[in-house]
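ESCALATION

Customer reports they have been waiting on this structure for their group meeting. Please prioritize. Original submission:
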Amino acid sequence: MTSNKKLGVMATALLITLAPATMTAQDKVEASVGADLVSGYIWRGQDLGGVSIQPALGVSYKGFSLGAWGSVGLESKDTKEFDLTLGYATGGFSVSVTDYWFNKTAGEGDEFITNKYFKYGAHSTAHVYEAQVGYDFGPLAVNWYTNFAGADGVKENGKRAYSSYLALSAPFSLGGLDWAVDLGMVPWETTFYNGYSSGFSVSDVSLAASKEIKVTDSFSVPAFAKVTVNPRTEGAYFTFGLSF
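Update from on-call: job pushed to the front of the queue and completed.
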């Protein structure tokens, strides 16, 4: 489930930006396809896998967008992910709904439970449905995410947590590189983030930099590096990626 790198890649495929944000309406259908190769899959301050290939495919028209995003780890034990996002953006405002799906979840010990894609039972599905609303002010992008259906986390009393996440992102330029500072917060109790969050917690403090690596006079490859710290779990990660 990129702080928001994953949604950032999806947003690129959808011709919008990180998490997603600004998109101008166009008069014709536009489409894009691409993939990232990342040294580690870190999402909202959580370690979801090692070296991974993350393809993206999207189409957009007059502010509306439909995108597909996936992640496949190089190790067979890594969980495979397939997400679909339907969104709309105008000016700095954006809204979207995402269907996350994982091919397996951790069971007891080192075992895994395999999840069938077309299984939508209220208490047996591997899909998680999330709504997003946000605004990109330019110097700062603010996005709110809430799970509203599917395999959401729960509270200590066993009730659905409607797990939510608040993400702030501030881009800037320095030394010839494009930078971004990300801050992600879990506002209330849920088992969906960080194993278990008993209340408000900061889940992601990140600093990322990107640049174009010139291969030939007519071809370059975008590269990025990101340092992420999760104060809640006391985890720290340094990842690198290439976009194609």
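Sent to customer with the following note: The two ends are 20 Å apart (CA to CA).
Escalation resolved.
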